[in-house]
């Protein structure tokens, strides 16, 4: 394996411990797809562990220097190096088939990457990635946890999520000021929620808009003057499961003018 000093999108932080990159790559189950898209490969620290695996790897990299490096070091990958902005890319043009998404994701756009994955949820059975630890914990947290929030509910509606391991600062050079966390998302069996999915998002976002208040207060814009009552309204948003939010969505939709 090549001992590359790979760019990490925390700024200029370099991953020194290649066992971490290997562990991230090994987080892929390989079940339900034959293609993998890596976001932000930099100088290939993770890519080198993906290429020997039994699937087709594509990489999406915006940095010109990194693209040139990847083309030179991994010529077999060249036709599948996409020099573009992941957030603006139509992923069906990369591959129309199912694929896993993986990466040491740029922390400043990591939430946007996850929401984009959600847009392609029927094409993406699995996501494995390294995030800022706080974000990773938020995504994986369940009801009753203070870190449970909008992104937790929206992703857990369609994915089963595991927190795999923590990555400490000292494996980077220079070390960042935050720890990292690696998580895996596996698509669940829900093709569609049992509610209006667009309104579901609105209900979830409104519920957490004033997370210290009960739902009776935070959902006032959707309840209006209807007089709607339900035991769930006495709780804070962080207490509700995905199924509770589906139920609440159906109840609130029925009273909309």
Topology:
Blueprint: E1 7-8, E2 13-15, H1 18-26, E3 35-39, H2 47-50, E4 56-60, H3 64-73, E5 81-82, H4 91-94, E6 99-104, H5 110-119, E7 126-132, H6 133-140, H7 150-156, E8 159-167, E9 172-173, E10 180-187, H8 197-207, H9 215-218, H10 220-223, H11 242-254
Parallel strand pairs: 3-4, 3-6, 4-5, 6-7
Antiparallel strand pairs: 1-2, 2-9, 7-10, 8-10
Helix pairs in contact: 8-11
In short:
By secondary structure, the protein is α/β, with parallel strands linked by helices. It has helices spanning 18-26, 47-50, 64-73, 91-94, 110-119, 133-140, 150-156, 197-207, 215-218, 220-223, 242-254; strands at residues 7-8, 13-15, 35-39, 56-60, 81-82, 99-104, 126-132, 159-167, 172-173, 180-187.
Tally of helical runs = 11
Give the helices and strands as they follow along the chain: EEHEHEHEHEHEHHEEEHHHH
Cα Rg: 20 Å
Strand order of the largest sheet: 5-4-3-6-7-10-8
The count of DSSP E runs of length 2 or more, i.e. the number of strands, is 10
Q: Number of folding domains?
A: 2
Description:
The chain has helices at about 20-25, 45-50, 65-75, 90-95, 110-120, 135-140, 150-155, 195-205, 215-220, 220-225, 240-255, and strands spanning about 5-10, 15, 35-40, 55-60, 80, 100-105, 125-130, 160-165, 170-175, 180-185. The chain has about 260 residues and is α/β, with parallel strands linked by helices. It has two domains: about 5-185, Rossmann fold, CATH 3.40.50.150; about 195-255, Helicase, Ruva Protein, domain 3 (Orthogonal Bundle), CATH 1.10.8. The strands form two sheets. Strands 5-4-3-6-7-10-8 form a seven-stranded mixed sheet, with helices on both faces. It has a three-stranded antiparallel sheet with strand order 1-2-9. Helix 8 (about 195-205) packs across helix 11. The radius of gyration is 20 Å and the shape is elongated.
